[in-house]
Amino acid sequence: MSLTCKEVARLVSEGLDRELPVEKQALLRAHYAICRGCSNLRDRMAFLRRAMRNLKDAGGADGD
Amino acid sequence: MRDSNDFRREVERQRPYLIRYATLQLRNPDAVEDVVQETLLAALAGASGFAQRSNLRTWLTGILKHKIVDTIRRAAREPAFSPGDDEGGDEFDALFRENGHWVEHPGAWQDPDAALEQKRFFEVLERCLEKLPARTARVFTMREHLGSDTAEICKELGITQNHCFVMLYRARMALQQCLGANWFDR
C-alpha cells in the first residue's frame, strides 16, 4: 500500500515526535523518491525544528 | 562575597529578557508577569544555588522554564481554552485533493539555514507562533522549544498521545505556511 501526500504530511510530523514503525519509514522513503512536494515538506518541518531550537538566542543577548 | 543588593540588581536586570521569553509561551500578560515575578523571587531566595555570575541568564531561564511548565499544566486543567482550538474539521485538509494529493506542492526553500543567522527571521517566527491557536502553541512550544517529549506533554495536559500528534501536526503545517508566506517565498 502506498501513501497519499495527505497521509505523508501527518507522518512527517509524527516522525518528529516518535520513532515510526520500520514499514512506515520504508513507505515514506518510497514516497519521497517520487514526490518533490512531500520531500520539501519534510525539509521544511526539519528546518522548523532547527529554528525553534535557535529561537532562544533571538532575544538580544546582552553579553553573558 | 557578593553584595546581596548587587545580586538583586543583576537579577532584576534580566527581567525584560525573562518577560520576553515567557511571552513566547504564555500570551496572557498577567500570567507572564506572575511567572517572571515568581522566578525572580525564587532566584533571590535561592541565590546560594547560583555559583557563576556569567551564567545568570541561563540559570534564571532554567527556573523560568519550570514555572512556565507549571503554569501551562495548571491552565490545561482549567476549561479556559476556547473551543475550536483543537476540535472539529482539519483546516489543512483543504491543502489536499480528494485523492490525497497536494492541491499545490510545497516548494523548496533556498538555503533555509542562512535565515538562522538573521534576527529579523526570528521576529517573523515569533509572529507566526503568535498566530497559532493558544493551546496548539503551548503544545508546540513545550515540544520544540522547552524540549519536552510527547508522552510527557500528553500526560501533563491530560490529552491522548494521538491528540498530541494532531496538534503538533497542525502547528507545524501552520508555521511552515506562515514562514513561507512571510519569509521564504516573499
Give a brief rundown of this model:
Chain A has about 60 residues and is mainly α. Chain A is built from three helices and no strands.
Tell me what you see in this structure.
The complex is a heterodimer of chains A (64) and B (186). With 64 residues, chain A is an all-alpha fold. Chain A contains 3 helices and no strands. Chain A has helices at 5-15, 22-34, 36-54. The model of chain A is unreliable at 57-64 (pLDDT under 50). Chain B is mainly alpha-helical and 186 residues long. Helix content of chain B is 62%, strand content 0%. Chain B has helices at residues 4-13, 15-25, 29-45, 56-77, 119-131, 134-144, 150-157, 161-184. The model of chain B is unreliable at 79-88 (pLDDT under 50). Classes of the chains: A mainly alpha (64), B mainly alpha (186). The A-B interface holds A 4-7, 9-10, 13-14, 16-18, 36-38, 40-41, 43-45, 47-62, 64 and B 17, 20-21, 24, 54-58, 61, 92-93, 95-96, 99-102, 105-109, 112-113, 115-116, 119, 121-123, 125-126, 141, 143-145, 150, 164-165, 168-169, 172-173, 175-176, 179-180.
Indicate the percent of residues in helices of chain B: 55-70%
Structural class of chain B: mainly alpha
Mean pLDDT of chain B: 85
Total DSSP E strands of chain B: 0
Share of β-strand residues of chain A: under 5%
Structural class of chain A: mainly alpha
Number of helices of chain B: 8
Helix content of chain A: 55-70%
Describe how the helices and strands are arranged.
The complex is a heterodimer of chains A (64) and B (186).
Chain A lengths: L4 H11 L6 H13 L1 H19 L10
Helix pairs in contact in A: 1-3, 2-3
Chain B lengths: L3 H10 L1 H11 L3 H17 L10 H22 L41 H13 L2 H11 L5 H8 L3 H24 L2
Helix pairs in contact in B: 2-3, 2-4, 3-4, 5-8, 6-8, 7-8
Features:
heterodimer; A: 64 residues; mainly alpha; B: 186 residues; 8 helices; globular
